[in-house]
Amino acid sequence: MAYITLAAGVSLLLLCGDVLVRGAVALAVRLNIPTLVIGLTVVAFGTSAPELVVSLRAALSGSPGLAVGNVVGSNIANILLVLGLPALICATNCDQPFIKRNMFYVLGASVLFIWLCLIGPLTFWHGLVLFAFMIAFLIDSGRQATDGNSEKAIVGEDTIETIDGLTGLPRKTWMVVSFLIIGIVGLKIGAYLTVDAAVQIAKAFDVSNATMGLTVVALGTSLPELATTVAAALRGHCGLALGNVLGSNLFNILAIMGLTAMVTPVPVPGEIIKMDLWIMLAASLAITPFILRKTHITRAVGFVFLLGYVAYVATAFMPRSSVLAGYMN
Fold first, then answer.
1. DSSP assignment of 227-258, as one string?
2. N or C, which end of the chain has less CB nearby within 10 Å?
3. R_g of the chain, CA atoms, integer Å
4. How far apart (Å, rounded) are the C-alpha atoms in residues 270 and 268?
5. Confidence class of residue 308 from pLDDT cuts 50, 70 and 90?
6. Does the reported pTM lie above 0.90?
7. Contacts of 192 (CB under 8 A, 6+ apart)
8. What percent of the chain has pLDDT over 70?
9. In the prediction, which pLDDT does 155 show?
10. Cis peptide leading into residue 64 (ω within 30°)
11. Closest-CA residue to 312 (of 6, 10, 81, 64)
12. Separation of first and last alpha carbons in the chain
């Protein structure tokens, strides 16, 4: 029964997250908010809604390992899986505008997050620092993108695809309101089902909540990014994958963990501090040479990334003491 509940919870998160984004974007268009601003705020926050509600629910219900594991595991999956799989379809170019700047933001956010976890638990002030970094990124992104960029004034449903490929936005006011309500309520229910089922499965298999968050829950909440990048790769637009991954990872660390820590203290499990945070940083560093050299993530590299993710998931379910001992030897 717990497996059915988990599948239902993740499905509800993905479905209602998409509904919420479409409703929020439609509302923003009606308010004549520029496309650029919609992309940096409404779409970015909306697509991270599943991770946010799961982390909040987990932290508030006494499962901080699940909350932190969801974010760290999602970031690892985004690079090794979400970048690796599309690269098997077509090579991913790493020369998009602002991509180098975004990479440095992700690396800086990762280092900051690791440092805060080391001196944790994460409290309101730690969360405030993370979220302030997010605001700084949004302001800098807006300034960079509007300097000599005519797209800053583009508004309308016909141009929304320039932000995140969104189509089929609700047009009537009652539909917009319905999308928002269904999205918000559905996300809350989905988070409740997902977290409770994950905790039950963890107890049944005698694994930690952190392990469930790092693997099963993280993979589930990363499915939208995976679907988007694979669809883009099939259309030959592989360059979209890298930008989506960097943006998602930045929001996961700064916005999701920032807001979660501001709502309730989040103790970081020792197993995540000793191993998974460093794997997350290593995964980010792995794509740095490709961005700095403006080269491609080839099929061979994508295959290595996928093997790395499979190995990571396998080790996540092993006793961490034996894994760490193996690495040290």
1. HHHHHHHHTT-THHHHHHHHHHHHHIIIIIHH
2. C
3. 19
4. 6
5. very high
6. no
7. 9, 57
8. 80
9. 41
10. no
11. 81
12. 41
For residue 39, the one-letter residue type is G
> How many angstroms separate the CA atoms of 244 and 229, rounded?
8
Q: Cα dihedral angle (206, 211, 216, 220), rounded to 10 degrees?
A: 150
Distance CA 189, CA 168 (A): 24
Q: Using CA atoms, how far apart are residues 272 and 284, in angstroms rounded to an integer?
A: 16
Residues in contact with 70: Cβ distance below 8 Å, sequence separation at least 6, in sequence order = 51, 54, 55, 58, 213, 214, 217, 218, 221
Check pLDDT > 90 for residue 51: no
Amino acid at 125: W
pLDDT tens digit sequence for 255-280: 999 999 999 999 999 989 999 999 99
Instruction: Show the domains of the chain with their CATH numbers.
Output: 2-157+169-317 (1.20.1420.30)
- Residue pLDDT, tens place only, 181-231: 887 788 778 767 877 887 788 777 788 888 888 888 888 777 777 776 776
**Is the model's pLDDT at 302 over the cut of 60?**
yes
Handedness of CA 10, 90, 151, 175 (dihedral sign): negative
Element (H, E) at 142: helix 124-146
Q: Which of 55, 37, 118 is nearest to 253 (CA)?
A: 55
Q: Report d(CA 68, CA 267) in Å as an integer.
A: 9
pLDDT bucket at 163, cuts 50 / 70 / 90: very low
Name every residue whose Cβ is closer than 8 Å to that of residue 228 and which is 6 or more positions away in sequence.
164, 165, 240, 244
C-alpha to C-alpha distance for 226 and 235, rounded to whole angstroms: 14
DSSP summary character for residue 156:
S
- Cα distances from 123 to residues 117, 129, 267, in angstroms, run 10, 10, 9
Burial status of residue 1 (CB atoms within 10 A of its CB: 0-12, 13-18, 19 or more): exposed
Q: Which two tokens stand for residue 19?
A: 């509904």
Percent of the chain with pLDDT over 90: 26
SS3 call for 318: coil
